[in-house]
Amino acid sequence: MTRPHVTIIGSALSGNKGAAAMLESAMQTLDERIGDVDVTLLSMYPVEDAAQNHYPNLEIVPATPKQLGVTINSLALLYFLLPPLRPLLRRKSRAIGALATSKVLLDQGGITFTDGREKFLLYNVASILPALFVRTPVFKCAQAIGPFTGRINRFASKVFLPRSHTIVTRGRITHEYAQGLGLTNLVAGADYAFSLELDGSERDAVAQVVDLSFFDDEAHVVGVCPSVVMQKKVDAVGGDYAATIAEFIATQQAAGRKVALIPHSVRTGTDKTHNNDLPLCRDIHGRLASTEGVLFVDSELSSQQLRWLIGQCDLFVASRFHAMVSSLAMAVPTVVIGWSHKYREVLEMFDAEEWAFGSDQLTPAYLSKRFEELAAAQVEVKAKLDQHLPDVKATSRAQADLIADIVRSR
C-alpha cells in the first residue's frame, strides 16, 4: 500500500526557529494521526535544511524564491494546461512530482496576504499557486492574514484565498478580518507551534553549548529575544533598537537580575540578516558596558532546545513572534514588542493582551516601565498562562485532525 504523501511550504528547519517549530509540530502530529507518512518540504534554504534534517520521512526539495516563482510555477502551469506532459513533469521535477502525488499542501507561512507587506504578496501567491494548478488541496495552517484595505492586497486575497481548501485563522482579529472579506473556508485555531512537544533530550543538548549553572542561583533570569525585523521598523523612523535593548539589559543588571540574550532566528555561517537575529544580538551584546550576569546564546539551537531554554527564564521580553509562542507555551510571563495584530491576538487567548505594545511606543523608559509592571504581576500572569495553556494547545492540535481527515479522504 502506498504511503500517504504531504507537501509543506513556508517553514524550515534552519534560520527562523518559529518556522522550524511549525514544521516539526506537523511532523509530530501527523505521524501520531496518520502513521507512516512521507513529507516533502519545499525549502527556501535547501542546503541548510538538509544539513539539519533528522527525519527519515522528510525530503528537502529546493524552492528558493526564484525557483518557486519562476521554475516551479511555470512547470505547474504547464502541468495544468498540457495533460500529456504530466507524466514527464512528475518525473523531471521533484517539486511537481511531490505536489502531484500529495494529498494536501500545508502552507505554513506565519503571516500572509496582509496590508503593509505587499512586497511579500507575490511570494504568498507563488507558494500556493502550483498546488492549485495540479489540483492538490491547499491547507493554510494557523497564520495571520489581513487586514485587506489595500487595493492590491484585497484583490489578490479575494482571488486566491477562497481557493484554499481550509484557512486556519490564528486568533480573533485574523478571523474577523477573514470573515469581513467574505471567506467561508475558515477554522478558528491557534498557532501550530503550540503543538510542539519536547522529548526530554533538550537539557543535555543545550548544556553542550550553554553553561546551565547560570540558572542555578536565586537571581531572577530575564530572557530577551530581539528581532532584526523589529530593528528595521524602529530604526527606519529614527530610533535605535539595538541601543534600546542594550539599555534595557543594563537596567536589569543594575536591578540585580540576570539576563539571557537568546536569538530565536539564526542562520549559522552567514552575516546576512534575513531570518537571522544573531548579528543583531552580537551588536547588542557588544554595546554592554559589562557582561556580568548576562548569558549570550551565541549559537544555533533547535526549536525544541530553544523552547526548553526559554522555559528556564522567570520573565521574558520578546520581539520575535515564535519566541513569544515558546514563552507562552512554557508559561513564562512575557512582555511583547510587536508590529502587527498577530502578537495581540495570540496573547488574547491567554487573557494577557495588555502585555503587548507596538514598535511605535518603544522607548527605553516605556519598555522598563511595562516590564516592571509585569514583574510586579508575575504570579497572577503566570496563573493565567497555566490556566489557558491546555485549551490553546488543544486548539492548536485540532488542525492536525483536520489535515488527517483530508489525507484519509483522498
* Tally of DSSP β-strands: 16
Q: Poorly predicted ranges (pLDDT <50, ≥5 residues)?
A: none
- Alpha-beta classification: alpha/beta
* Sheet with most strands: 8 strands, parallel
Number of helices: 17
Quick description:
This protein has 410 residues and is an alpha/beta fold. The chain is built from 17 helices and 16 strands.
Structural overview:
- The structure is a single chain.
- By secondary structure, the chain is α/β, with parallel strands linked by helices.
- Helices cover 48% and strands 16% of the residues.
- It contains 17 helices and 16 strands.
- It has helices at 17-34, 46-52, 65-81, 86-92, 94-101, 121-133, 151-160, 172-180, 202-207, 228-236, 241-254, 278-286, 303-310, 321-329, 341-348, 364-376, 378-409, and strands at residues 5-9, 15-16, 38-43, 58-62, 104-107, 111-112, 138-145, 166-169, 186-188, 221-225, 258-261, 265-266, 294-296, 315-318, 334-338, 356-358.
- The strands form 3 sheets. Strands 1, 3, 4, 5, 6, 7, 8 and 9 form an 8-stranded parallel sheet that branches.
